Amino acid sequence: MTLCHRGTRACLVRCLGDVFGNACHAASQSVNTQTMNLDIRSHERRFANYAAQERAKEREDPAPLDLKFTHTHNVLANARHIVASENFTQARACLLAALYHDVARFEQYLRYRTFRDRVSCDHGLLGIKILKRERPLNEEHPLVRRLVLAAVGLHNRFRLPPSLPEDLALVTRVVRDADKLDILRVMDEHLSQPGPYSPTVVMSLPDDDTIVSEPILQAALEGRVAAYEDLRSVNDFRVLLGTWFTDMNFTGSRQKFVTDGHARRILQALPANAPYAPVKDKLLKQLDEFTAIFCPEAH
Question: Which of 213, 264, 253, 222 is nearest to 82 (CA)?
Fold first, then answer.
């Protein structure tokens, strides 16, 4: 069961209320010098200092925290790639939300020794609490600040709430795409190594070909995004990652998904026998089709 932070959940509700309440003013506020400025180096330094401060508290193995620090900068790089391929009016908010999306992972791990939200806390909601406590966004444009806080709180939802304001939906989707693209990298690099796998990376899932989640396989066969809560094994995790293409929101994200090669290598490692064989074949064929559409020169 997920341990909920009532204060941070209320915080998310307030952030969403702010964005909804100011939606009518978003058009006039969204395009100005401050919100379009993509230089966030001061924030990157502040985040690095915060991460180092939290890392210093780890007395056993800092590797999981180092993993999250590296992940954060790769997510930011992915967000920059997505923003560069689109014409977003809230590009600064996209980059800041990408930078701070996992700010709570350090405190979460130090407190619970896991990154699994279901058995610890909602790291998106805790992230809002930390950002309000540390106040790195105080000098930002009010709309940027609200968008970043809300996007951090929303980025790890299985589905986004319907009818989000356009700016908030866009910022959150950029973060979600950028996040997934780097999770693919992390999993590809880790699963390409000989086992046993790190419990932190594979969420303590068993690497056992006989353990299968039918809901995961069914989601893949039906062309739906599989859910973390249905995972039962490392192979299920491979399938879940392969379903993410249908949840990519931007052309730049889709192109990077197929050209990076991470998803293909992850899927190729699935067992060639039932019950994974039909799912493996379907997802690899689907990946070929996506490659032909979004990166025909690589096909």
Answer: 253
